[in-house]
Amino acid sequence: MTVAKGLEGVVACTSAISSIVDGVLTYRGYNIDDLADHASFEEVAYLLWYGHLPNQTELEGLKSELDRNASIPDELHQLLKINANRIHPMSILRTAVSALALYDEEAENNSQEANQRKAIKLTAKIPTIVTAFSRIRQGLEPVAPKAGLGFAANFLYMLKGEEPTDVAAKAFDKALVLHADHELNASTFAARVTTGTLADIYSAITTAIGTLKGPLHGGANEQVMATLESIGTMDKIEPIIQSKLDNKEKIMGFGHRVYKDGDPRAKHLREMSRQLAEQTGNKLWYEMSVEIEKLVVDKKGIKPNVDFYSASVYTYLGIPRDLFTPIFAMSRITGWTAHVLEQYANNRLIRPRAEYTGATHQAYVPIDQRK
Ligand SMILES: CC(=O)SCCNC(=O)CCNC(=O)[C@H](O)C(C)(C)COP(=O)(O)OP(=O)(O)OC[C@H]1O[C@@H](n2cnc3c(N)ncnc32)[C@H](O)[C@@H]1OP(=O)(O)O
Ligand SMILES: O=C([O-])CC(=O)C(=O)O
């Protein structure tokens, strides 16, 4: 057997959703640069799910379905209250999404139509869960979703209790577009593995959220901000980064399994960070990030990934650090569910092999004779 550690280079399925070829990322054939500059998150969600960009009527239809499904059951508010201040928001999100299945009468209906409806329900409810949890742990009442605001603005509204500026809503919308899908990343693969057993979509998304949480994947964005905060000032960057590299520590937000010459999403987030730094008058996080990028590229030849500049962007938008990965999930839910739908439509159980390296020919010893 040939073992590809970490499945590097293994092509595990065909997919018509997103592709990375020669460092270029496309969703359904549209370059991410064009989508980031021109499309709204709702347009991108529609594109990922249905394979084409929506016309105006289709887009309005999706937006009103998202608005209609944005509230969460009262029992979930109780779950959030009991666990506020005790549990990481990603653990809450994972548990809350799993619990949503208990309140969905079509949770076990695996038809394509039901799963398309569930993709919309999940996408609509995740922002409500994340913001309700964030407010409850600050001792504040959750803010109910407001129809008509749009997905990105509604999240910021529910988080802060006031409607965001146009600039903030647009920047956040763009960040969501950039995170929506990414071929066979670890959490999407995990979702497809669960789907491959013909389990329900809530099980697949619960799997995906658990997988996104880790710091080598989506959890890196929170760790990037932790690094920036722990360094704190420009003069400490060089010695701290050098010592991390000397100790063979990973610098969070750098490196990628597929992109060896840079992540095409990072330049958009770098520019957004620059603009928000100027608008907020707080240039520290942006300037520190640029300096760290220079050092890591010079010393190690490794470039920033999507998580690196998203950390300062979210901080400039006033979002708490431990909500960064839930926000990633809030966008990636569209990609995950698109992949789940694609997997159901052309399913085969996903079951690779392992090369056994353990002991062999062991003789069974009765328990009273064991040392
Ligand atoms: C949304 C996302 O999931 S994007 C990725 C988010 N994750 C991070 O930012 C965490 C930091 N980065 C990493 O840990 C890795 O680059 C990963 C997990 C993204 C990719 O991992 P792999 O493809 O397995 O790369 P691997 O870990 O084998 O790295 C190859 C070499 O680059 C080095 N390297 C890779 N990333 C980094 C990093 N961030 N900092 C320092 N060195 C790094 C490794 O130490 C290794 O060096 P070596 O050959 O001298 O031992
Ligand atoms: O593709 C990956 O391995 C990780 C990543 O960048 C993403 O999920 O956006």
Automatic annotation (TrEMBL):
Pathway: Carbohydrate metabolism; tricarboxylic acid cycle. InterPro entries: 2-MeCitrate/Citrate_synth_II (IPR011278), Citrate_synth-like_lrg_a-sub (IPR016142), Citrate_synth-like_sm_a-sub (IPR016143), Citrate_synthase (IPR002020), Citrate_synthase_AS (IPR019810), Citrate_synthase_bac-typ (IPR024176), Citrate_synthase_sf (IPR036969). One of its GO terms (molecular function) is citrate synthase activity. Keywords: Acyltransferase, Transferase, Tricarboxylic acid cycle. Pfam families: Citrate_synt. Gene3D superfamilies: Citrate Synthase, domain 1 (1.10.580.10), Cytochrome P450-Terp, domain 2 (1.10.230.10). It catalyses: oxaloacetate + acetyl-CoA + H2O = citrate + CoA + H(+). Belongs to the citrate synthase family. NCBIfam families: cit_synth_II, PRK14034.1. PANTHER family: CITRATE SYNTHASE, CITRATE SYNTHASE, PEROXISOMAL. This is Citrate synthase.
